[in-house]
Amino acid sequence: MEEKIREYDIAIIGAGPAGLTCGIYAARYGQKTVIIEKALYGGTATLANTIQNWPGEKNISGIELMMKFKEHAEKSNAEFIINTVTEIKEENDLKRIIMQGEEILAKTIVVSVGSKSKWLKVKGEKELLNKGVHFCATCDGAMYNEKIVAVIGQDNRAVEEAIYLTNTAKKVILISEKKELTADKAKQDILFGKKIEIIKEASVVEFVGKEKLEKMLIRKKNGEEEEITLDAAFVYVGTDPNTEFIDVEKDKNGRIIVDKNMNTSNSGIFAAGDCISKELMQIITSSSEGAIAAHSATKYIQENFKK
Predict the structure, then answer these.
(1) By Cβ atoms counted within 10 A, which residue in 50, 144, 285, 295 is the most buried?
(2) Looking at the domain assignment, is residue 62 inside a domain?
(3) pLDDT digit string, tens, across residues 95-129
(4) pLDDT at 1 over 60
């Protein structure tokens, strides 16, 4: 006898700040809720060494904050599935969510899949990945104790990780394509108080090394090229959304277009967090969007599924 497929009111794809908050709200609204996550509860927020702008928490690590989110969602009776969503199909009034070896049905879907680190797309980057080229100093920085390391980028994440690396590295070099850093002033004030060499208006041309990273070639604004000897480079040049599997309207960067209520172009599918088209990408904004998506999905169910 074939096992009956599980059915939910709200299926949330992605367990970052948006997805976990959505799960808390959806479950508390009385909706049968499931949160599907392929890898890491808390998403990229867990990689933040310190968070100093979450209301009520003056200084907390990303992983600690996200574990609080997850625990709250669990206590609100949201269910969890560890799996990767590969496809979504319409099935009468429901959505069929296809995963690896598993399928479920849902009345509504909230897509909160976040984003992944963007590649520089320069020579040697892929060949030396995890052999000196990395995307997470919090994860991999400890391997380079008393070594020379570089951070490539100018936003909050880049500056935070450069500061973090000063705790263990012999020398930290920050490479910024822009004339001015885009990180918050508070973070820049900390950065400038550290022994960090900052090279502005320069871009990486090539990573060089045989078995591991040995050198990095940069090009300055005036066209001059410089070779830097180092042991590791951490890349923070933005993110790309994880939205390839979902067929809804997106902007030119692949981020999902939503209205103020987190509706996508497809009825019954909502989106929230860093996978949507927006200006400010912060834990607090993603959480807000998750709450709005839960409210909108609940309202959709009330209007379209009569008990």
Answers:
(1) 144
(2) yes
(3) 999 999 999 999 999 999 999 999 999 999 999 99
(4) no
The CATH number linked to 136 is: 3.50.50.60
| Same domain membership, residue 107 and residue 123 | no
**Cα separation, 1 vs 230, whole angstroms:** 62
Q: Rounded distance, CA 233 to CA 206, Å?
A: 11
Look at the pTM and tell me if it is higher than 0.90.
no
> What would the two tokens of residue 235 be?
């890349």
Nearest by Cα to 18 from 2, 4, 35? 35
Q: Which whole number is the average pLDDT over 188-201?
A: 92
Radius of gyration over alpha carbons of the chain, in Å? 21
For residues 219 and 252, state if they share a domain: no
Instruction: Name the strand (E) or helix (H) holding 225.
Output: strand 225-229
Domain boundary among 174, 208, 235: 235
Give me 207's structure tokens: 């990573």
Boundaries of domain holding 62: 7-116+239-304
CA distance 255 to 201: 28
